């Protein structure tokens, strides 16, 4: 099952709106087939592994990281494929939360005489599928907030210089993290200041995340890197009701997708942003700031995982903080996360924090 989970993670960021599932088929103590959900969400992991196993699948055990699907969608049910192949036993950590499947896949397998075992590495599988589960149950994607800052929590000098606070090893790891998410999201201020490309580079990975920019008024440079490449890699612009119609038309004309959300005072409504992204099929979003967007998501209790890269330099109070004001007066009101990992990456410190329930 640990191998199946590791295979499933290879699909993270490429399978939305479907879950990233892994499958390993074992017979007589030997692996005869393996697979993971393909880019775009199909084929599913099970038929890929079954095709590799061929006739050796008869009487074998299939380790699958999520309950096999039992409904007809754009592909036939994976349960049908497992039954037809003569699989004798299916091992899966937990049920699918999708109402079209939930429990029905296991029932279908048992009715066909296949032994079903559940509860293996359940917490690990639940974490891997957390984005898919959130999209189905809460209507929003899982949000990872990444902050790269100085020792004293600054993301730039007073003049705005920010490249580079962290070293090349940390930046390479960020590209890997981008690749494991459906979308990379930044605020309009970051897009204007840094002219980012928000793509995965230097890793030989062709699949690119959707690039999301949150800008209430759409006051973004039309000669930016994002604008020039909007027809090559998707750019989604989240804007408010008061965005200039001429700017909407201009961005749509160069290939961007525009998504209007509610305004909450001077800011866009963070909950509505994520709801609209969930409606569009996203399950995992990697937010890279800036400070206003990050503070808005944290203040609305919509951040599920924090990834911090801390560099060994100090920029002082005049430097730009990693978070904008959040209006917190009591420690009890501050969002808290549990530390899950801490290690060095090059000359920087990586620390990962998650919600208690993840």
What would your notes on this structure say?
With 358 residues, the chain is of the alpha/beta class. It has 12 helices and 18 strands. The protein has helices at 2-9, 45-53, 78-84, 104-111, 122-128, 130-137, 168-179, 188-194, 225-228, 245-253, 270-279, 291-299; strands at 22-27, 30-36, 61-64, 89-91, 115-117, 142-149, 154-156, 183-187, 210-214, 235-239, 257-260, 263-264, 267-268, 284-287, 305-310, 320-321, 338-345, 348-354. Strands 11-10-9-8-14-6-15-18-17 form a 9-stranded mixed sheet. The two termini are 19 Å apart. The chain has 2 domains: 1-135, Cytidine Deaminase, domain 2 (3-Layer(aba) Sandwich), CATH 3.40.140; 138-353, 3-Layer(aba) Sandwich (Dihydrofolate Reductase, subunit A), CATH 3.40.430. It is globular. The model has no long low-confidence stretch (mean pLDDT 95). Helix content is 27%, strand content 23%.
Keywords:
358 residues, alpha/beta, Cytidine Deaminase, domain 2, 2 domains, 5-stranded mixed β-sheet
Order of helices and strands: HEEHEHEHEHHEEHEHEHEHEEEHEHEEEE
CATH superfamily of the largest domain: Dihydrofolate Reductase, subunit A
State the total count of DSSP E strands: 18
Shape-level CATH architecture of the largest domain: 3-Layer(aba) Sandwich
Q: List the strand order in the largest sheet.
A: 11-10-9-8-14-6-15-18-17
């Amino acid at each position: 099952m640990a191998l199946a989970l590791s295979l499933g993670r290879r699909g993270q960021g490429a399978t939305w709106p479907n879950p990233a599932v892994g499958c390993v088929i074992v017979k007589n103590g030997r692996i005869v087939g393996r697979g993971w959900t393909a880019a775009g969400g199909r084929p599913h992991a099970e038929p890929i592994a079954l095709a590799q196993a061929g006739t050796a699948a008869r009487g074998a055990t299939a380790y699958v990281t999520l309950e096999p699907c039992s409904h007809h969608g754009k592909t036939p049910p994976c349960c049908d494929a497992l039954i037809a192949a003569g699989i004798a036993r299916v091992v899966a950590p937990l049920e699918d939360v999708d109402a079209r499947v939930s429990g029905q896949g296991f029932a279908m397998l048992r009715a066909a005489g296949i032994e079903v075992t559940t509860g293996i590495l359940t917490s690990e599988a639940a974490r891997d599928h957390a984005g898919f589960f959130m999209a189905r149950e809460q209507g929003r994607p899982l949000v990872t907030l990444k902050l790269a800052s100085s020792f004293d929590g600054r993301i730039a000098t007073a003049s705005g210089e920010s490249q580079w606070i962290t070293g090349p090893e940390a930046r390479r790891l960020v590209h890997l993290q981008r690749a494991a998410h459906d979308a990379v999201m930044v605020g309009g201020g970051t897009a204007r200041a840094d002219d980012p490309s928000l793509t995965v580079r230097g890793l030989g990975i062709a699949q690119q995340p959707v690039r999301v920019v949150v800008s209430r008024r759409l006051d973004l440079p039309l000669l930016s890197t994002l604008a020039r490449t909007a027809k090559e890699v998707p750019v989604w612009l989240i804007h408010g009701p008061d965005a200039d119609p001429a700017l909407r038309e201009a961005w749509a004309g160069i290939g961007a997708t525009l998504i209007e959300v509610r305004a909450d005072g001077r800011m866009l409504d963070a909950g509505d942003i994520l709801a609209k992204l969930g409606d569009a099929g996203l399950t995992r979003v990697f937010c890279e700031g800036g400070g206003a967007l990050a503070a808005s998501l944290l203040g609305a209790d919509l951040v599920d995982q924090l990834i911090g890269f801390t560099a060994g330099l100090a920029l002082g109070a005049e430097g730009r903080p990693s978070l904008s004001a959040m209006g917190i007066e009591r420690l009890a009101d501050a969002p808290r996360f549990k530390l899950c990992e801490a290690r060095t990456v090059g000359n920087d410190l990586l620390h990962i924090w998650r919600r208690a329930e993840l």
